[in-house]
Amino acid sequence: MRRTPLLLALALTAFACDDGAGDPLDPGAGARPAPNYEDSKADNYVSTNAREFDLSGVTHVDLPEGFAELDPDAKALQLDTLVQRRLNTVAYAVKRHVEGVVREANGGVTGDDARFFTFFKRDHVAHEAAEIIDAGKRARVPFSLELVGSVYLMSKVAPDSGGARTFTVDADGEALTIEIAGSASRDAFPKYADLFADGVFDIAIHFGGDYNEGRFDIETAKWLVAYLLEGGWKNEGVTDFASLTIDSPPFTRTFTVEGKPVEARVYVYHSDMVDAANEARLAEAMKASLAERDVVVYSGHAGPGAGFVLDYQPRFELPARDFATLPLAEKYQIYVFDGCQTYRTYVDDLMKNPAKTFDNVDIVTTVNTTPFSVGYQTLHQILYWLTLTDDAGRHFPISWNDFLRGLNTDDFRSVHYGVHGIDGDPQLNPHRSDVLCQPCATDADCGAGGNFCLGYGGGAACGVACTTDTACGAGFRCGRITDDPDLFYLPKQCIPRDYVCR
């Protein structure tokens, strides 16, 4: 297996957080439009050290005198205003209750050492249509909230054993029963076949600017250029960091995908490539990457409501309000947003763009604040795991959970990387999966990198890389073939439940 050592040269403590963004969860901020109830859970998120939770219940709204006599438009407007106001109250009560439970569970421990955490997204409340009841005096409103938190958060918030887990909160005098359930999304593989279909796998890495005196953005960009050149990537126009310009050709190398060559290309951009008069070129490069590249990485300052902060000398930003109208690619892509709290708003803002659905994009985000020292690790993981090959030179498919395990390490356990859009991704080897239980002598007989030749009592037979039991089909399960923590990246295999290949 091709392996490249990672040397983290600097111990950095600054955080990749934008200092100009406010907190959109201020309970006094007033009513906000709630997303459609059916669509509100569509980001199908997974992480190795966090989980999304759905909280649902029913609340009621008192209707004013004369409501029944209003014309339909006025009635709908007033009802919507009353519902939104009520949901703000409900959301605040639920959030306050959950965070109180978490504080108690942590026993006063805060920061990176706290065992449990929670994080509520902006516009995290959704509702079904209100139903008029009690002879027109009240409206019944089923609602749903979404939060991300520690994997075992549910055991603290609703510790009941068996059945639905529920808890009760008081929302301005109304006792509400809240049911909490963990997201049903499961691990899958990126759509490698789509990424490699044209024979080119291009990755664009855009460093955001930095206001810190140490200019961690430039230090990380220098490290990346050295890492690429020393790791065997070719670039006829770039010999060192100083020779890298905004018009430089990409760094390249070739790997094999089931016998076919694929050229990997890495484009690198940072704020000091242009002077103050030409800041717009940074935005043009970012827009071009979003419209064309297979993988787009933003590594820089972020925060709730922020966009891509591409420079700080002076500050120059591609604002979040522009995401909905950017010329995004309709092909499958991977976006990686490595900065503070990109989980909170970046996904929602980008998915307003009509070119993107979760059929054609997976988005990696971070939940909490992100130290700049993670940037080295993240970039290494992206370049290493997505281009990994086995000893035969075949591309080796890594599942999202295994990719995330390389990011969610003990050293950075408070960051919480996760991926959105996973439910439409393949749960069997995306290169080839039709060889299950075929006789074999070596892994090469099993059709694709990631499928292994496994020993059975009746003779060796092929397994197939998998992420779920369901994907393997009746009579099979998806099982790990090693407990060695250093081999966590070896994909699980579909194997017969009775260990007999027929």
Give a short synopsis of this structure.
With 502 residues, this protein is an alpha+beta fold. It contains 9 helices and 21 strands. The protein folds into 3 domains: 45-182, no CATH class; 192-424, Rossmann fold (3-Layer(aba) Sandwich); 443-496, no CATH class.
Please describe what this structure looks like.
The protein is an alpha+beta fold. The protein folds into three domains: 45-182, no CATH class; 192-424, Rossmann fold (3-Layer(aba) Sandwich), CATH 3.40.50; 443-496, no CATH class. It is 21% helix and 25% strand. It contains nine helices and 21 strands. It has helices spanning 72-105, 154-157, 192-196, 216-230, 280-292, 342-350, 373-386, 400-405, 469-472, and strands at 45-47, 51-62, 118-127, 131-133, 138-149, 165-171, 174-182, 200-207, 251-257, 260-269, 295-299, 308-312, 315-318, 333-338, 361-366, 417-420, 453-454, 461-462, 465-466, 476-479, 492-496. The strands form five sheets. It has an eight-stranded mixed beta sheet with strand order 1-16-15-14-11-8-10-9, with helices on both faces. Strands 2, 3, 4, 5, 6 and 7 form a six-stranded antiparallel beta sheet that branches.
